[in-house]
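Dear Dr. V.,

Thank you for agreeing to look over these. As mentioned in my earlier message, I'm a first-year student in the group and I'm still getting used to reading structure tokens, so any feedback on how I've presented them would be very welcome. I ran two proteins. I've put each sequence directly above its structure. The first is here:
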Amino acid sequence: MALAAIVLSACAQTYPAAPATASSPEYNYIIGPGDQVSIAVWRNPELSTSVPVRPDGKITTPLVEDLPAAGKDASALARDIEKSLSKYIREPVVTVIVTSFVGPYSEQIRVVGEATKPQVLAYRQKMSLLDVMIAVGGMTDFADGNHATILRTSEGNKQYSVRLTDLLRNGDVSANVEVKPGDVLVIPQSWF
């Protein structure tokens, strides 16, 4: 009996509680593969289009082939398109709007383990743990929610403990914390 208690206590690592706030006001959305972008070229409706960002991170539009889009914000992409179109049009004015969001792989939120629907989610400014759990449909009956952790890749893979059972089943809003781009939420299975 004493041996079982020692083994269980050695397996149960504790991590510091996740900070309540994590977002920064200077966050800019970065385009990633799978995003859909709408491109408007002023006074040239035949060049205006909506295109997906391919898995290789590039887009192709009329007169512009294989232009890198991933890793840029919408304004930077618009300036690159203007530069490419300037070979054909005098002083092009381009506006880029991201209409469908996936984001770059490094900023996606991943949920693994005992979530009802484990998946990858696009990060949104001020996204909270509750937002993530709603998107994945909550936890399974076998989840040990109060032993869940957030692996924060933006902080060198530092881990924080989170209290999902308290948040979802007991309604304790103090357990709701913000997530950061690139976070991995790990929901373990309960031993009993």
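The second protein is here, in the same arrangement:
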Amino acid sequence: MEDMWSVVASERGALADDLAGLDDAAWDTRSLCEKWTVRDAVAHMIATAEMTPPKFAGKMIASGFDFQKMTAREIADKREADPAAELKHLRAVRDRRTGPPGPTTSWLGETIVHAEDVRRPLGLSRTYPMDAVVAVADFYRGSNILIGSKKRIAGVTLKATDTDWSHGTGPAAEGPMLSLLLAMTGRTSALADLAGPGVETLQSQS
């Protein structure tokens, strides 16, 4: 991909447009991240967009090097007084090209996966750029950092049914590329979109 940050910006904007049509109560819907509401997930996306490596280091130190504690503090800090203010904040960070330490692909992944964490429980759908979804899947498939994708998909052949992509060895799990990405990042609801004997293995390892 020539410019992942431009895709990040586009996807943040698309999510903001989708959320603009919701009433306030919808923001309290439980996201695919079981401990977060839609509003929490959006606050997390804002926090990630406004993070920088120096800020990240300082906040980790202040949180006693407890990543989950730091994340909870950031969500609480970025939750605005009401959904309208939070939506405005999301639009304000649309074009930011900052984030915690890590490759740009990881922040592209955060944007796509967390957007689905929000959209799916709300019954919203989005067709993401396929090259972006593939790039993120190629990144996550070899990483156990934080998300544990490499371990989760071990011993399974993942095969996309809507693009020419596959990975792994063992019993197959086939389905849409986006659903494969969500499954490898621990979103078990996406397993319902997949077929094949490998789905049971993915379920047991999620």
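From my reading of the second output: Strands lie at 157-160, 166-167, 172-175. The chain has a mean pLDDT of 95. Does that match how you would interpret it?

Kind regards,
E.
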